[in-house]
Amino acid sequence: MCGIVGYVGPRDCTDVLVEALTKLEYRGYDSAGIAVFENGKIEVAKSKGRLSDLVGKMEKEGKPKGHAGIGHTRWATHGEPSDVNSHPHSGRRVTLVHNGIIENYKEIKQFLIENEHTEFLSDTDTEVVAQLLDFYYTGNPIRAIRRVMHEIRGSYALGIVFADRPETVYAVRCESPLIVGQGKGEVFVASDVPAIIKYTKDYYLLEYGEIAVLKNGAVNFCDLHGRMLEKELKTADWDEDSAEKGGYPHFMIKEIHEQPTAVKTTIMPRIENGLPNLSECGITRETLKDINNIFIVACGTAMHAGMVGKYVIEKLARVSVTVDIASEFRYRDPLIGENDLVIIISQSGETADSKAVLSLVKGTGAKTLAVVNVKGSSIAREADMVIYTHAGPEIAVASTKAYMVQLSVMYLLAFEISLAKGKIDEEKCRQLTAQLEQVPEVIDAAINKVVDECQYISTKLITADSLLYIGRGLDYALSMEGSLKLKEISYIHSESYAAGELKHGTISLVEEGMPVIAVATQNTLLEKTVSNIKEVKARGAMTIVICDEKAEIDEEAVDYMIRIPQINETLMPMVATVPMQLLAYYTSVNKGNDVDKPRNLAKSVTVE
Ligand code: F6R
To answer: Strands 515-520 and 466-471: what pairing?
Structure first.
């Protein structure tokens, strides 16, 4: 995944492009580049490495000066990160930046070679598009773009400049997200809203197959057939601060602190007279009443939120829930029936594997429900129903607040399904909903209570080669997320294990000093989990236990106890998540890693 930007207006274009790209670096950060019209000529600057490397290079070699141009921050898919593979890529008269993947680039390359267009400098699929566009370009940019769009296959968003069309930027969307920001006398292109929020909150969302032409501070749109379009101007409900660090050293820790507000903003508008009300999302008790089976499909952290959802929905609503990884689900020919509900959870709403599940479900008769954070994203638009989470922009690659709000939606849904199925009455539901309403406060208290302890305990983790997370029931679902969080930003290997399963093989890994983090918030399972903690302690493990304030646990079995504020046991995952996030965060900080941009990862995975 990559980030693309564009600008046409009175400001210094290079400055705007660089500033906008800093907000998109979460999408990819192994190289960056820009192309700007300087005195009617396209000037390109690009570099392997972070955006700061490009800026450093331009400081030494001079930066392009002008008022219209395009920019890119890359996460390599075709061709290693290198200066030459960095975007923009050019043909003779065309220069472009690309987010996505061109599936048939090899055939096109072959076609171009056979037609004597043989100058390929890079290993990228993107350069092939630039060359193809050049091949078809006879002076009418829209005609050439449309022709190319009919020939290339894949997911893409493009920002394009033509050498003989100075001060004009063309933008195209097919699958990969793209917006056009409208300011006063200036226009912007970006893969995501945070890139332009400093300049304007007003934007157009490009749809599949649409082309935008940015010129003289204004924009015009047409479709794949060349027909002019009128588009609705939207207004972002985020302010500039939400896309900035706001005094925190990293986005991740800022986002951890934003969780109480994010949960409040997500659940409060969906509670009416003490009961869940999801009707604005197209969900009523009538629609839920006859559901047979539920499938929750997602990737990574979002899938872990689904795991918690499974435990809670099955426990309260007594409906069978299968949780699956989207990349597995889409190829395993699942048995989906007419009255089933398929829930797709995704922060970005653009994850390729999760998106593919929607097409798979079409025609089965099952209903699809998207739980998505990014408004207007592909998954949100393609599902039958959508519950937007209101986490605001999540910039750190490691997901924290998006996971937390996904959990809060899982609870609301579980309550609503339970009511619809007659498994709980309104009074019981009111009690549960009231407890959910208290969660933001408890999360806040948990952050304040455990932050110092977690910072200290993380100093004990940095030398570990490997560690285990264990738990039972909801605590097991949660430990999966704890383990992922730690490994993705600290680069320490970790595994999550159902505590009772340890003795069937994995306990042989435990040796002197190995950290084992046990989540023990489920009182009904506490005794069993404590036995497992003793088992690993007896084999030399350094045990770290996350439990509530009152849990009775033999202190001798525990090296570090992290006690969190108590709430109804079913809701404890939302509180117990906090120490796991903080342990991961401080371990990464203490190791000197780039917390917000861990190696090899990108914020949303729009390619398979
Ligand atoms: C990990 C993380 C990823 C995402 C996964 C799905 O911290 O963020 O595991 O959860 O790539 O992304 P979305 O939710 O955008 O579909």
So the answer is: parallel
Using DSSP's 3-state secondary structure scheme, residue 223 falls into coil
CA of 329 to the centre of ligand 1 (A): 16
Burial label for 147, CB within 10 Å (0-12, 13-18, 19+), is: middle
Cβ of 85 below 6 Å from ligand 1 = no
* Substitution candidate for ligand 1 out of 1, 256, 301 with most atoms within 8 A of CB: 301
The stretch 240-258 carries a mean pLDDT of 86
The residue ranking higher by pLDDT, 596 or 238, is 596
- Strand partners for 282: none
Rounded Cα distance, 588 and 586, in Å: 5
Statement: residue 40 has pLDDT above 80 = yes
**Mean pLDDT on 412-434:** 97
Pair 484, 492: CB distance under 8 Å:
no
Reported as half-sphere exposure (CB side, CA atoms, 13 A), residue 377 has a value of: 28
Ligand 1 pocket member 400 (CB < 6 A) = no
Ligand 1 mean position, distance from CA 244 (Å): 21
Nearest CA to ligand 1 atom 9: 300
Q: How remote is the CA of residue 120 from the centroid of ligand 1, in Å?
A: 34
Give residue 118's pLDDT band: very low, low, confident or very high (50, 70, 90). Answer: low
Give the burial string for 431-459 (b: 16+ CB within 10 Å, else e): ebbeebeebbebbbbbbebbbebbbebbe
- Predicted confidence band of residue 397 (pLDDT cuts 50, 70, 90): very high
Q: Give the H/E segment covering residue 403.
A: helix 401-420
Q: How many CB atoms lie within 10 A of CB 57?
A: 19
